[in-house]
What does this fold into?
Amino acid sequence: MSTTILEMDNVTIRFGGLTAVDSVNLNIQEGTIRALIGPNGAGKSTIFNLITGIYPPTSGEIRFLGQKINGLKPHLITEMGIARTFQNIRLFGDMTVLENVMIGQHCRTKANFIGAILRSPGVKAEEKSIVEASLNALEVMELGHKKDELAKNLPYGEQRRLEIARALATNPKLILLDEPAAGMNPQEKQTLMSMINKIKSMDLTIFLVEHDMKFVMSLSDRIAVLDYGKKIASGTPAEIKKNPAVIAAYLGK
Ligand code: ADP
Ligand code: MG
It folds into this structure.
């Protein structure tokens, strides 16, 4: 039997007069790839911001493995097992590839200031596990051999993979990818697609926002469609392709 990893229950957020996300209900099953598609401004990134605690919803509830998470601080949500990437690249260009991954794990650092100064055995063990997790994540994204290069010197497609490595290193159960293939060439997209499938096979659940329809249709188990903040459809790729409301939302613009 499948387990529901994430549930959104009537989730709404208003920014002043704008209802960016409007009474959205959504369930994601563990171990699947779920996509969220819709025109620009539909509210896709805002849904990621709600799940990761950047904004509290105006109303509604979000549950992760049955536990209510809305209202929790972002770092607590990361610790519980939700990681994300952002629509625009957020790397430190003058830091190395490995450092860029390690920096994503500050949530795991429990060492206090004194502990850090004394470099107690506990702190050293913690540092070691952060390095190990970071190297593992880089291996998954096939960037291990580039760990000492500066992030700014990687080709664009590898920079985007580096961001996924950073999210993976926090040891998530659910990973949110906001337009991971944007700006990639077909070869880079193909590589990314096989890596996302590899992540799925590692028992992770993936929630994906992406505009490239071929990419979305071939990767996803289920797709939800958002338009003006409202969920207008949900189903398998085959169902979504022939859904009249979806066709209207896309062709109407
Ligand atoms: P998408 O990712 O689907 O392109 P977004 O979620 O980024 O869309 O945005 C949905 C709508 O919410 C847009 O109209 C956007 O301008 C608005 N919005 C997003 N964040 C904020 C904010 N912090 N303050 C005001 N409006 C916002
Ligand atoms: Mg967006």
Notes: DSSP finds ten helices and ten strands in the chain.
